[in-house]
Amino acid sequence: MERPQKPGNMTRVQEFILLGLSTSSDIRDVLFAIFLTLYLVTLLENSLIIYLVCIDSELHKPMYFFLGNLSCLEVSYVSVIMPSLLAGLWGGPGPMPFIACMTQLFFFISLICTECTLLAAMAYDRYVAICHPLHYLLLMRPQVCLALSLSSWLSGLLVSVVKTSCIASLSYCGPNVLNHFFCDVSPLLKLSCTHVALTELVDFISAIVILWGSLLVAIASYAAIGRAVLRIPSAAGRCKAFSTCASHLLVVGIFYSATLFIYARPSRLEAADLNKMLSVIYTVVTPMCNPVIYCLRNKEVQAALHRTLRWS
Fold it and tell me: Peptide bond before 291: cis, by omega within 30 degrees of 0?
């Protein structure tokens, strides 16, 4: 519920208290060990992908260029969220200065929006590869790949500047307890003691544009891919064509299912514990699983890893 107050009665909150993933001291130590392990595995997997894509000439292809970008994104993404999650599990609910909270929110919004648009660009890449194979190298030449990648990062940055500015300009005069493990949009809006209708509208519209816009691009790409695959006469050919995009389709399904539920709806319609569980999926689980789904089961990546180990 909004709590508008007179400006003279407002004392601006200087810090927020993050309740963390769990307030039960009995399981925090176990969760800390689990999530620390997941964090280190995520960093190792994605760093390995970045290294292989950079040094192995056989991986200098559009698909792996985007996968390298995705791994850079995942390393940044998980490093923005994990420190506060681990700190909450180690020491229990703790304070986060207002500036630090807004900084975390800025990078979080920027990276999640970048991932949305990058996944759409990767869907388009698979569409071109399967539906226009003879023109693939022309349509996905390095300049186009670079433009798609830069537009993904810049669009995320632009959206984040607008949304974070709106949220930071609100007044927070208590309470200052965030029932989350990082500074997220909806919990912050709930704590504002001024009218947040305009900020909620900006948040909702940007979520619709970024999430639904990129999802529609992915759906259109895979609809065209599906039609092209069904026209392949042999079952072996259909299976081979589908296998080139099945991993991306799986990641898109998991990522968008969680993010759309949380962000593409009015912020008042929420259950905090459910939101936290869903947030774990796309902030912790997905960055760890993506390298396995995309790359480490891929024969070209495995061959590149073998070559690198043999040369070292």
Answer: no
